[in-house]
Every structure is written in C-alpha cells, then in structure tokens.
Write a structure and sequence with these properties.
By secondary structure, the chain is mainly alpha-helical. The protein has 12 helices and 2 strands; from the N terminus they run H-E-E-H-H-H-H-H-H-H-H-H-H-H.
C-alpha cells in the first residue's frame, strides 16, 4: 500500500495543485499585471507603470482605512486571545458542563460573517437607540467597538478550542513537580503553561491577526464604512474603489490597492510568526 502511494502520489496531488493554481496563483498573477494598467475590462488595458501605486498612497481614504484597520487589528487580536485563553484555562480544570460550554462558545464561529454583521447591527442599533446614543452609522466610535464585539463573539470560541488542545498537551509530570515544589498558580501559569502552549499562541495570534486585518463581510454588513467612510477597513476600501467609483483609472487603482494590501498582510504575518516562534520551547 505504501509503495503504491509513493508511486502514484502525483496523481493525488494534481487535483489540489490544479485548483490552487486556477483559484489563487493565476488570479494573483493576473491581478498584479492589471495593477500596472488603466482598464475598464481585462481585454482593454493601458500600461501606466507605477502611477496606480502612487495614487494609492495619495488617496486619503486608503490611509484612513489603514490606520482604522491597524487599530482594530491590535485591539481585536489582544482581546480575542486573552479571553479565549482565559476560557480555555477555566474549561481545562474539570468543571461541570465543560462540553456544553465548549459547544456554546464555538457556535458563533459557524455563522457567516454577513449574517453576523446584520444580526449585530440590529442588536447594537436597538441598544444604542434605547440609551439615547447615536446609531452605529452616525458615530465611528460605536462602529469601531461594534466591530470589536462582533469579531470577539465570532472568533473567541474557535481560538478557545486551539488553546484547550494546547493546555491538554502540557505534560502532567511538569505540573505535578511544580506543585510539589510549592509553585503558586500564577507561577505555574507563566513559567510552565504559557511557554508550553506557545505553538497554540502562535497559531491563534496568526489567525486573529490575519482575519482581523482582512475583515470585509462583517464591516460591510455592520457599518458599511459609515459615517463618511470613517469606519471603513482596508478590504472594504478596495471593494469601494473598484466597484463604487466610476472611471477606468479607479479599476487600476483598486487593483493596486489589492496588491499593496496583500503585501501588508504577508509582511505583518511573517513578522508575527518570527517573534512568536522564537518563544516556542521544545517538548
């Protein structure tokens, strides 16, 4: 059986490789090509060099969306990981109803982003209206915290599962030795548990960082960038540039924004992976 797998492994690889090339590599290369052009359709293009990229950084809506996205990403990444780890820590202590709690916390992750956005739009607008406060679309601060609440509610359960797996993988003899040596709960947490679950922290930080930075559907359905694009994130800004602005030049600029956006996500993700992996310990 193993010999057959080794002999015919290219056959098993081809469907996945073909789907990856057709669904990701080719669109990315073609999109990069179009970012250097002014166009209305992909068959009618005019080469403009780096002009589109120059206009990306002179577009105030893009820079505003970048700072809004960066602030959102920092806050959501910290909150999601801290709360998810705290819940995982509580649920690995043998309390009653652990499986029920895990299921309840994980369920929001199964709901689509667009649906979640509209659900929370109704909830938050209703709460703010009853408090006599401005609605989400009238104050960017409420839009920001509305997105934070939505993102936390959706992502915490998923990260919790990963942290639970990491905590359950901590060797029991280490914890027992620490208890015998008189280590306090906080000492055990910071000296043993956290270092041992660094691989889980690396994964969860990577997922929350990238998911937050490229958030689109929840932003579209919850605030749609209102008021006046003040709560618009990068992905929504790119969508708005490409589809909502008329003129051939905006298609190229929107494509250039998408390339810059891709490079930003890759750069930030690689930096995060570098620093978190350095903290991992061999078990």
């Amino acid at each position: 059986m193993e010999k057959a797998i080794k002999r015919y492994w290219p056959i098993f690889l081809l469907p996945t490789l073909a789907a990856f090339i057709i669904g990701f590599i080719w669109p990315f290369l073609w999109g990069t090509f179009l970012s250097f052009h002014k166009f209305t359709t992909i068959s009618k293009t005019t080469f403009v060099g780096f002009a589109n990229f120059a206009k990306v950084f002179s577009d105030k809506t893009f820079t505003d969306a970048f700072f809004f996205t960066a602030k959102f990403t920092i806050v959501s990444t910290v909150l999601i990981n801290v709360i998810a780890f705290a819940i995982a820590l509580a649920l690995t202590r043998g309390i009653r109803g652990t499986n029920l709690f895990r299921t309840v916390f994980f369920l929001p992750n199964l709901i689509g982003g667009i649906v979640l956005g509209y659900i929370w739009q109704i909830l938050l607008n209703g709460i703010l209206s009853n408090l006599g406060r401005p609605l989400l679309a009238l104050d960017a601060r409420y839009g920001f915290w509305g997105l934070i609440i939505l993102m936390c509610w959706q992502q915490i359960g998923y990260m919790m599962i990963i942290y639970i797996a990491g905590l359950q993988n901590v060797p029991g003899d280490l914890l027992e030795a620490a208890s015998i040596d008189g280590a306090t709960g906080m000492q055990t947490l910071f000296k043993i548990k956290l270092p041992m679950v660094m691989p889980s922290i690396t994964i969860c930080t990577f997922l929350t960082l990238t998911n937050s930075f490229k958030l689109f559907d929840q932003n579209l359905s919850l605030t749609n960038g209102e008021p006046g694009k003040a709560s618009q994130m990068l992905a929504l800004n790119i969508y708005d540039t490409f589809y909502a602005r008329s003129g051939a030049q905006w298609k190229g600029i929107g494509q250039a924004k998408a390339v810059v956006f891709f490079l930003l996500v890759v750069f930030i993700a690689l930096i995060q992976l570098y620093f978190t992996r350095r903290k991992e310990v061999q078990q």
